[in-house]
Design goal:
The chain has eight helices and twelve strands. By secondary structure, it is an alpha/beta fold.
Length: 268
């Protein structure tokens, strides 16, 4: 699906969070949405996900204007959002967490068809190489796998547009690389991905195009192959930024903390 947001404006008391923002993303494209904290990124995506209503402007999907009154309408339109803070029930297993709110039912009493849901979860996990164990409990999964469950939940609802809000904030570098592989796999399969971040290196690595927000407005749109970290930083803050910190040689003193024979129970 092609997504367009045209002249989106949103006010809060004393704050102009989004000022006539226009962005677009084509089918199978990864659009990086870059900006400092407070630049308006999350507000814009909360409008797209149906949590906020814009004061003005319009949302178009494949050229058709759409108005969303709640998140359920957004999901029905094929838009899925993976929030920075996961929205999973810790005591559920993966199948139940993914199917929650979109359960397939069987029989006269409308019983949850777990077998059908599990089959679909396994198929999607294998198709997009998510490597999610379907019967594991959410609370027992590492953070990186929980995020894959969130992505799986969106795919289960047949989302053609996937919004990832600061997806690497809680991930290790290795988990971040795995996430990038998943994003590329999704895009190659035709999913439109919006990757929200404030990290320059990440957006340069994974995005096909980058739109930079500053103080609630669009500062510019560039292609990764024709821009640099310094140029992106300039767009983000409106001035040149020194990204390399010059440090003198280290002069370590006495040991103030040491650990020996440390044992941990699990990865948390």
């Amino acid at each position: 699906m092609r997504l367009e947001l045209k002249d989106i404006t949103k006010h809060f008391p004393g704050v102009l969070a989004n000022d006539r923002i226009s962005i677009s993303a084509d089918k199978g494209e990864v659009l990086g949405l870059l900006g400092e904290n407070g630049a308006g990124k999350t507000t814009l995506m909360n409008i797209l996900s149906g949590l906020y209503r814009p004061d003005s402007g319009e949302i178009l999907i494949d050229g058709t204007p759409r108005q969303f009154h709640d998140p359920a309408e957004v999901i029905d339109a094929g838009i899925g959002m993976v929030h920075q803070h996961f929205q999973l029930v810790p005591v559920f297993d993966v199948v139940s967490a993914v199917a929650l709110g979109a359960e397939s039912v069987t029989g006269p009493l409308g019983t949850f068809d777990r077998a059908a849901a599990r089959k679909r979860v396994v198929e999607l996990s294998e198709q997009y190489r998510l490597h999610v164990p379907p019967d594991a409990d959410i609370e027992d999964l590492p953070v990186g796998v929980r995020q894959r469950v969130e992505i799986l939940k969106a795919l289960y609802r047949k989302s053609d547009i996937l919004v990832l809000d600061e997806p690497s904030a809680v991930l290790t570098p290795a988990e971040t690389e795995e996430l990038f592989d998943i994003i590329r796999e999704l895009a190659q399969g035709g999913t439109t991905v919006i990757f929200i971040t404030h990290k320059l290196n990440e957006v340069l690595e994974v995005a096909d195009r980058i739109t930079v927000l500053r103080r609630g407005g669009v500062a510019g749109t560039v292609e990764p192959k024709s821009t640099t970290r310094e140029q992106l930083a300039n767009l983000m803050v409106g001035r040149d930024v020194e990204l390399r910190v010059v440090k003198g040689p280290a002069a370590p003193g006495d040991v103030v903390l040491s650990l020996k024979d440390v044992v941990v129970r699990d990865d948390r």
